[in-house]
Amino acid sequence: MATAAIRTVGLTKHFGKVIALDGLDLEVSPGEIFGFLGPNGAGKSTTIKLLLGLLRPTRGEAWLSGISVSDVERAHASVGYVPGDVSLWPNLTGAEILALLGNLSGNVDSRLRDELIERLDVDPSRRARSYSKGNRQKIALVAAFMTRPDILLLDEPTVGLDPLMEAEFQALAREAAAAGQTVFLSSHLLDEVEDVCGRVAILRDGVLVEVAALAELRRLTATVLEASLDGPVPRLDDLDGILGVEPMDGGVRVTVTGAPGNVLTRLGTAGITRLQSHAPTLEQIFLTYYETSAPQRDAVAAAHGASAPRPVGGDQP
Ligand SMILES: Nc1ncnc2c1ncn2[C@@H]1O[C@H](COP(=O)(O)OP(=O)(O)OP(=O)(O)O)[C@@H](O)[C@H]1O
After folding, report:
1. From ligand 1's centre to the CA of 43, what distance in Å?
2. Distance between CA atoms of residues 263 and 224, nearest Å
3. Which domains are delineated in the chain?
4. d(C-alpha 57, C-alpha 20), whole Å
5. 301 pLDDT exceeds 60?
6. DSSP secondary structure letters along 152-200
7. Vertex 194, ends 144 and 288: CA angle to 5°?
8. 46 C-alpha vs ligand 1 centroid, how far in Å?
9. Are 204 and 286 in contact (CB under 8 A)?
10. What is the position in ligand 1's atom list of the atom closest to the CA of 49?
11. With contact defined as beta carbons under 8 Å apart, do 296 and 261 qualify?
């Protein structure tokens, strides 16, 4: 079997009494785009800093391409990194910063660097102090990709990018993966990673909740319908796949897994005046799915022909 691009065994980090990461076991293959999802404070940045050797683990081990991350020099030889909060030297221009970082890492592909600058639409002649968060992010992305590293560790890289640039970033990630590079992408939004990642890990309070193929997760996730109604809200909780029903001003918000046709038919009897439907955010998935009682969750999973995610808390049957 090929050496994993990223491997962690029992990786744990305590900050005093705070358990930022608790026994993470993970394996990411070369050429994968792997989403690392979790709400704020879940432990994503801590994991990435442990992988970079910027933090020492309390327990456990991690390897990049088979090299222990404690061997910082060797493990870093082919890693690109975008931190969660990009700070750049304020008095240097984007071009000067890229030259500086390029000198540190060596082997910059200058044609690729220029292409990245153009595709991400950032002006390298400006001083970093005048850059918006999005522009700082873009310079960090150019720096991470321009050496064609084997592994890209990207901590919420699209925060601050507009949708067009987010799409460009996704194209870059796909091209990197097609060339055999591994992209490890953290995010607190499922939307941001679902188009581009093959597999995702979900982290919560430092604990790995689930590793799933995106297709499986999508089957398990719900649709949120918000309907304004003419008449009183009809009964909905007896319908298949209902995970939640909440009253709204002049209507109702329904969370449903699978096809929502039966819900729409029932709502139609009360006269729908306005209807909005959206995919749940990661937070909502946690709230509606992972906090659903275990028997209900298992029933939902079985109905969709997939295995149920492991429960988060102590609610095992
Ligand atoms: N240096 C530190 N000292 C003390 N606690 C810390 C430190 N770094 C992180 N933590 C705590 O560890 C937990 C995990 O934080 P981490 O930054 O890894 O989460 P995250 O998933 O990256 O969240 P975010 O999306 O908000 O950055 C949080 O409770 C955080 O407050």
Report:
1. 6
2. 11
3. 6-217 (3.40.50.300), 219-303 (3.30.70)
4. 10
5. no
6. EEEESTTTT--HHHHHHHHHHHHHHHHTT-EEEEEES-HHHHHTT-SEE
7. 130
8. 6
9. yes
10. 18
11. no
Q: What is the pLDDT of residues 199-247, one digit of tens each?
A: 989 898 899 987 878 766 665 667 889 999 999 999 999 998 888 899 9
| Ligand 1 pocket check for 242: Cβ under 6 Å | no
What distance in Å separates the CA atoms of residue 188 and residue 166, rounded to the nearest whole number? Answer: 15
Select from 156, 219, 217, 164 the least CA-distant residue to 188: 156
Name the closest-CA residue to atom 18, ligand 1: 43
Any ligand 1 atom below 6 A from CB of 31: no
Euclidean distance between CA atoms 10 and 60, whole angstroms: 4
Q: CA-to-CA distance for 11 and 26, rounded, in angstroms? A: 9
Please name the amino acid found at residue 104. L
Q: How far is CA 143 from the centre of its chain?
A: 21
Ligand 1, atom 6, residue with closest C-alpha: 15
Query: What end-to-end distance do the CA atoms of the chain give, in Å?
Result: 37
Pairing of strands 79-82, 199-204: unpaired
215 phi and psi angles, rounded to 5 deg: -60, -40
CA–CA distances in Å: residue 119 to residues 139, 196, 276:
12, 18, 34
What's the ipTM? Answer: 0.95
Q: Which residues have CB under 8 Å from 28's CB, separation 6+? A: 4, 5, 6, 7, 34, 182, 184
Distance (angstroms) between ligand 1 centre and the Cα of 45 equals: 7
Q: Measured in angstroms, how far is the CA atom of residue 279 from the centroid of ligand 1?
A: 27
| Residue 254 and residue 244 in contact, taking contact as beta carbons nearer than 8 Å | yes
